[in-house]
Amino acid sequence: MSGLRTLLKPKENVTIYAISIDDHEKTRELKGKIESDGKGVVKFALLSDPDHRVIESYGVRAHEYDGKAYGDIKLEGIPKASVFVIDLEGRVAWAKIEENYKTRPTNADIRAALDSINQKARPARGRRKGRAPGKVIRRGGVSQSLKGRAAVGL
Asked: What is the pTM (predicted TM-score) of this model?
């Protein structure tokens, strides 16, 4: 997640959200931990999803961990490592969902997706801008809350 700080190009019109199932306090602690590496501040929003509404809406809950424990921490509602790129019309234009939690979508993968979408979004001269590809997300109001945002990491 710390690598997302270097993902965007200067003045790029993209908003990044990292979403955690941790509560607000733990999410703030995570932000502080990332920033303590001396590589700069976190310029993207870290959102808290302790009720698992977003991961359920996007279908990325790793049910195989439900009811298990990691030390004294009960694992419930753990998301698969995922990145969704949402176009300006609220459509999922690109997604990468990893089954193995140790494998994360790379910045190179995300950058290539953003570049591809930006290329498609540029209308040819004399042509009307068309709709971007993808699936409209409407479950749980997710499309409205993320519409106009380009990248969301879970």
From this structure: 0.70
